[in-house]
Design a protein that fits this description.
7 domains, repeat, WHD_DRP, about 15% strand, 30 strands, eight-stranded parallel sheet, about 950 residues, single chain, 28 helices
């Protein structure tokens, strides 16, 4: 197994390099003939090594003896190192050509001399560099071949498995279970039994229930106790337990089912007679088939296997345990049942039963406190708890238990505890394109909260995500991440304050990532961390330290081939100085994260990081970036979030034509955008754009940015002087924008602004819209167009508008906030609209705030606002009456604050759905709502929650 994993690690590096070579061959080598020949030779050598790795991996490296295994490890490490070096050379060629082409485009007067000189240089030097790497790889291939082929020749060919290195009998399971070691699964057991006993079926007589979870979480154990429960035994005529494992063979599995039913060996060998035999055995019977450890994600495999099952009696069930949500989606007719982790208490109980087996727990009470701490290291995984309990069983004093606690569970012997063998199989069967992505995650500390979008940008920067058709790299990366979720390598954790999903990696999975990336990834967590001699070959490094200045300097000296440097510590004790020579030492960096480091200045030497794709400088004191950063032609992502002192982007920022994501704050940063910012046509993320007055700084710079998506705030719109300029932004041709913020900073000409807003018409796919300080007299017609998919609208400080647009015609609008509109006196039926769609069919939240002259809202029909949940009036000084709100059958909450002239609650009363009424600083209403005595008391006395001027009014019973 260990050598098979080594093979998988090297295969992942080779896969990335071979894909890079293929891409390179298409784009670059037609220009450089000498390089082309060497690259093709290198490609053949890499394919030969990959075939060797595949051969050894498929046959599980029992082909190699112990002495050869050590050599194998060295070869694999060297292959990985040389693969990185070759990729660096290819990347350098591509970037240099890209730079020359970009310079020519920016200065058409330049001739091709510089370009020709560069290509000549490549022809002289690069073939030699590539050839040197190829020769080293060929030597390794020869050495590998001599050992592997010698061993193969000693074996009979029929003994060599050509399918799977993990033969099914190695991980076979049975239905027998020792319930003494089952803890914390009673509720799960009852839920699954309930599904098994239910009579609900779909179109087929047979229903399939997938039981999903990561390796070691206890799927098989839970299946065993369910399978043997008396209620289940009595409910089915036949019960069959089959261990599928990774070696999926439909004939073998079908024969196993037959043998389980008959108790005799099945001598049939062809699929058709075997399936016919099984069909005759199942016909007219109500059966339970348990398929344990199902791996294959091919629809066809399941279609063939389940053919005979359909003759079963109505109510027959198939219970499948799997690590893959993909499998669950293919097989399941019931929703997948996801098995959760145990709590620390249950882990300790499970561990204790093994640790104190044949012992009196009361005689070992002094060990319990230590044991509970060890149990936390299991992170809810039953397999880990049982394994640790087994080892603690042979430890008899506190010192030995403390040793286990402090050493960490991953110092346990791999061939005894069963944890790695259970989990590493998941890694071994990852597709090649996912192995690098998964292993890379080891540079983050355990219990790290992963943001999917951030991680995908890092994978992109490292070149792990390869183009596929016309699909965005980011979308391909999303597919990668989801595949890892489906295979239980990540678990959803929670939604953060920014409404973003957060994911975590189980401690055991994280340790596995560390194991498979030990040659290339390092995460230093404390100042006492020691550098291993092999660390000099590290490619990815993260520092989780309070004092990083010295460690960054040391890393740049020892690890000159670094591709990733992430400073994850957020507790720096002093300002970090970046010396000029730092970036000269780590010139192969693709990822650099120096966020939250109290940095004031970036040295000019940053331009030496020509391979850099991802740069995060967020939450620092930087005021400006050096001009030289514009030479980083390969840069894809630049983050400058929460750099509140940041003033300006470099003058030649337009040269960064490969930039895809620029993270600026919506406000409080730049005063203007650099000239010809529109050259950055590949931008997808641009949170803020400041419209300038000078040539090359206008809103038309957005025109060719057709890939913009997410949110954008466009400010200083007073500098847009005509509808023609507004049209140049092409907002109506940006279908991927979700949120648009339009803001003027001064009044300007009212007629001009009216035309400008009309010209800023967005694409109908827009979901959120904010309009601030607009000085036009009325809103454009597109704002109430039923074709728009707007979910949220915020209109603020539009002080000259006296009529609201017909927003009630927007079919999907859920949230609407209108504030600071001093000219609005009346809200009438026009607000709810007319036509086939009207009356806010989806609106849930409506807020009127700081409306100094609003006096009345009328014209509300009985069919308007039927889904409104919350209605708020705040600081409406002249508001005298509310509309009939009693028809608002979904209204749950009504807030009235600082409305001193409001005379009374609606005469018809309030809707029966109302659960909360809050009245603040509204004297007349407060008086009319006095308990028992107020004239409006009868209208509100049944509302569960009433709060008047911060005083809770008890509900009348």
């Amino acid at each position: 197994m260990e050598a098979a994993i080594e093979a998988g690690i090297a295969q992942a590096s080779l896969q990335v390099l071979l894909e890079r070579i293929t891409d390179f061959a298409v784009k670059e080598t037609s220009l450089i003939l000498g390089v082309d020949d060497e690259i093709r030779r290198l490609q053949r050598t890499l394919q030969k090594i990959r075939a060797m790795l595949d051969l050894v991996g498929r046959n599980q490296l029992n082909l190699l003896n112990n002495s050869s295994n050590e050599a194998w490890k060295m070869w694999v490490a060297d292959v990985e190192k040389l693969s990185y070096n070759a990729e660096d050379i290819l990347d350098e060629i591509s970037l240099d050509i890209l730079q020359v082409n970009a310079d020519h485009l920016n200065d058409p007067n330049k001739n091709y001399q510089v370009r020709n000189m560069l290509l000549s240089s490549f022809k002289l030097t690069m073939p030699h560099e590539i050839g040197k790497i190829r020769k080293e790889l060929e030597d390794i291939a020869t050495e590998m071949d001599s050992v592997v082929m010698t061993k193969l020749s000693e074996m009979d060919s029929y003994k060599i498995s050509t399918k799977s290195p993990l033969r099914s009998n190695c991980f076979a399971t049975s239905s027998l279970v020792n319930e003494e070691f089952v803890v914390g699964r009673e509720n799960d057991k009852e839920e699954i039994i309930k599904m098994l006993l239910t009579a609900k079926v779909n179109r087929s007589n047979v229903s399939v229930i997938p039981l999903v979870g990561m390796g070691g979480i206890g799927k098989t154990t839970l299946a065993q106790i369910v399978y043997n429960d008396n209620r289940v035994v009595q409910n089915f005529d036949l019960r069959i337990w089959i261990s599928v494992s990774v070696d999926f063979d439909v004939i073998r599995i079908t024969k196993s089912i037959i043998e389980s039913l008959t108790g005799k060996r099945c001598k049939l060998s062809d699929l058709d007679p075997i399936q016919s035999k099984l069909q005759s055995l199942l016909s007219g019977k109500k059966f339970l088939l348990l398929l344990d450890d199902y791996w294959t994600e091919k629809y066809g495999d399941w279609d063939v296997l389940c053919g005979p099952f359909r003759v079963g009696l109505r109510g027959s069930k198939v219970l499948v345990t799997t690590r893959s949500t993909i499998v669950a989606s293919i097989l399941g007719t019931f929703p997948a049942f996801h098995l959760k982790f145990l709590n620390d208490k249950d882990c300790w109980e499970l561990m204790k039963r093994r640790a104190f087996s044949n012992k009196d727990p009361e005689e070992n009470m002094n060990l319990e406190e230590i044991g509970r701490k060890i149990a936390k290291k299991c992170s809810g995984l039953p397999l880990a708890a049982k394994s640790l309990g087994g080892i603690l069983h042979f430890q008899f004093n506190e010192e030995e238990w403390e040793s286990v606690l402090n050493s960490g569970m991953w110092d346990l012997p791999q061939d005894k505890d069963g944890i790695f063998s259970s989990l590493l199989i998941s890694y071994h069967f990852l597709p090649a394109h996912l192995r690098k992505c998964f292993a890379y995650c080891s540079i983050f500390p355990s219990n790290h909260e992963f943001d999917m979008d951030e991680l995908i940008l890092l994978w992109m920067a490292e070149g792990f995500i390869q183009p596929r058709g016309g699909k965005r790299l980011e979308d391909i990366g999303c597919d990668y991440f989801n595949e890892l979720i489906w295979r239980s390598f990540f678990q959803f954790s929670h939604v953060n304050l920014h409404n973003q999903s957060v994911y975590k990696m189980h401690d055991l999975i994280h340790c596995m990532a560390q194991l498979v990336s030990a040659n290339t990834c390092i995460c230093l967590r404390d100042d006492t961390s020691h550098w291993h001699p092999a660390s000099t070959n590290a490619r990815h490094l993260s520092l989780c330290l309070p004092n990083v200045q010295q460690m960054v300097s040391k890393a740049s000296t020892l690890c000159k081939n670094l591709r990733s440097l992430l400073v994850i510590s957020k507790n720096c004790k002093s300002t970090m100085q970046l010396p000029y020579e730092l970036f000269l030492k780590v010139r192969f960096l693709r990822v650099l994260d120096l966020s939250c480091m109290d940095i004031y200045e970036i040295p000019d030497s940053v331009e030496y990081l020509k391979h850099l794709r991802f740069l995060n400088l967020s939450e620092n004191h930087i005021q400006r970036l050096p001009e030289s950063i514009s030479n980083l032609i390969g840069l894809q992502t630049l983050k400058l979030k929460n750099c509140f002192e940041f003033l300006e982007l470099p003058t030649n920022f337009k040269k960064l034509t490969n930039l895809r994501h620029l993270h600026l704050d919506v406000k409080n940063q730049l005063n203007y955008m650099p000239s010809d910012f529109g050259n950055l046509v590949n931008l997808q993320t641009l949170y803020a754009f400041i419209v300038g007055k000078d040539r090359g700084c206008g809103i038309g710079q957005l025109g060719n940015m057709k890939f913009l998506r997410g949110s954008i705030c466009i400010t200083n719109l007073e500098n847009v002087l005509s509808v023609m300029e507004a049209n140049e932004a092409n907002l109506c041709m940006k279908p991927f924008l979700d949120s648009l913020w339009l803001e003027w900073n001064n009044s300007g000409d009212r007629i001009d602004q009216q035309e400008v807003l009309a010209g800023l018409q967005p694409h109908p796919n827009l979901k959120e819209l904010t309009i601030i300080n607009y000085s036009g007299l009325m809103f454009p017609s597109w704002l109430g167009d039923p074709l728009y998919k707007l979910r949220s609208i915020h209109i603020q400080s539009c002080k000259y508008c006296s009529i609201l647009p017909s927003l009630g015609q927007l079919p999907l609008l859920k949230h609407l906030c209108i504030e600071d509109m001093s000219s609005l006196v009346l809200v009438d039926h026009h607000f709810c609209g007319c036509g086939p769609i009207k009356g806010f069919p989806s609106l849930e939240l409506l807020i009127f705030q700081n409306m100094p002259n609003l006096m009345e809202w009328k014209g509300l029909d009985c069919c308007d606002l039927l889904h409104l949940h919350e209605l708020t009036f705040t600081n409406c000084q002249r508001l005298t009456s509310l509309p009939s709100l009693h028809n608002l059958s979904s209204l749950n909450k009504l807030n009235i604050s600082r409305c001193p002239k409001l005379q009374a609650l609606p005469e018809q009363g309030l809707p029966v759905s109302l659960q909360s009424l809050i009245i603040l600083d509204s004297a007349i209403i407060r008086e009319r709502c006095r308990v028992e005595e107020g004239e409006d008391w009868y209208k509100i006395n049944r509302i569960p929650k009433i709060e008047i001027d911060y005083v809770q009014i008890p509900m009348v019973t």
